[in-house]
Amino acid sequence: MVKVFIDPTRCRGHALCLGKWPDAFDFLDLDDRAVVREGAEDAFPPDVFLAAAQGCPERAIVVELDEQEKQAQPDRRGGRS
Amino acid sequence: MTDTVSAAPRNEVEFDHHGPEFRDHRQEVIERLHGTGCPLGHSSAHGGFWALYGYDAIYDAVQDAELFSSARSAETPKMVPPSSLSEPLIPIDVDGPEVKEYRRVALSRMSPAGAKALEPRVREIATELIDAFIERGEADLSQELFTPLPARMILEILGWEAHRWGEWQSWVHTALHDGTLHPEAAAEAITTILTSIDNELAKRRNVLSDDLFSDILRARFDGEPFTDSQVIGYGFLLLLGGMDTTAGLSGNTIIELDRRPDLRRQLIEDRSLLPAATEEFLRHNSPAFGLYRTVTRDVVFHGQQLQKGDRVILMFPAAGVDPNQFERPNEIDFARSDTRHMAFGLGSHRCLGSHLARVMYQVMMDEVLTRLPDFEISGEVIRFEDSGDNHAVRYLPVRFTPGRAPGANVGR
Questions:
Q1: Per residue in B287-310, pLDDT tens?
Q2: A57 contacts B108? CB cut-off 8 A
Q3: Measuring CA to CA, how many Å separate B120 from each of B126, B127, B209?
Q4: What is the interface pTM, i.e. ipTM, of the complex?
Q5: Chain B CA closest to residue A55
Q6: Cys bridge to B114: B109, B277, B368, B388, which one at CB 3.0-4.6 A?
Q7: Distance of alpha carbon A49 from alpha carbon A64, whole angstroms
Q8: B2 pLDDT exceeds 90?
Q9: Min Cα separation B341/chain A (Å)
């Protein structure tokens, strides 16, 4: 289980996350930014959010892994793809 | 990124994005810049400017809009070479929170959902254009598909006469590609475009409708509408952005697919790869060269001493092949996971039309791969002479097995 936050001050509406995972992310048209869909953190594996964070050109997606996930994915945190 | 320590010796680079070397050997030139080991370099061309090509340096510059200003005026010409336009264009020549307010006007039509809603119309135009040449077995894909489709779309979205796309397009091409080579012609084309938009404004001021130009005329900021010159500038920018860039990406892709049958086969066999391929072509060789900024104070930035008033180019396509950011940067690989490119720019000035551009590009590629999958380049590919602003082909002759045009002359 992860917590995912899209920083509204950084997101500039590239919508790459939305394009790739339309059921995990939603888009606020007139605010020109993406948000995480309600319940998506439960419905999707952490890998989806880690990949989205890695693919975000504005580095706006912040993923918080819990202890269990951290141990499961020691080499997936930070760093470049 | 910026600090007070002393700067390294200036990284002088021989570089002119408007010159023939950049047009003909773009990737080699960019590779040479990365090879300096410094993420930015100073060129003495056009009165001197800084080229930012390193991924992280561009990212940092965009984050610091106070240091790297987008404002343009007579005192801060920003562009290389300076534009013949005196008025700043909204929203590209603006800093601060207004950028978002000005962009909001266009967002309902340019959002991901807005762009998707336009897909059927894009498909219809693509079908009509391909119908017109498919039985011939040869065509100029640039002239007959990639150029007219985006041009007609942006004119339809603005609510201007789309059948006049050829005129608008020729002015836009002259304005964008002849700035250094034939500056008088470029200035004249810009004047013609502005006058033509002014004519639209005169016709439309009191006849608002369901189109983007009406949205711009309806917009209010603290109760005030845009001034006439702001309206005209906004329209001008939408034309420039809408007409040339998607055509550039499409042409560059066809050249690549012609050269690489393996890539073409992948897309023909599995069309679900098209979104990933789109991002990879954007990363590898995106057409739009970048945006300009002006440095607002003396500063050491990524080891180089910049001075107040220096002009800077943010070279987004160069960031896409930065070896410090991407593994095997010059290799096209639809399966790569590191696709965090900057082809549409970054920050508050991120390309407003990016979602529509993706829709148009993917529809055109899908239709080409469906209807003329065995296309091959059959003559000389001619690029615009100055590809400093947009690396695009003007002529792209292909031949293919003739197909049928079932939709020709029906219902139109």
A1: 999 999 999 999 999 999 999 999
A2: no
A3: 10, 10, 21
A4: 0.90
A5: B340
A6: B109
A7: 10
A8: no
A9: 7
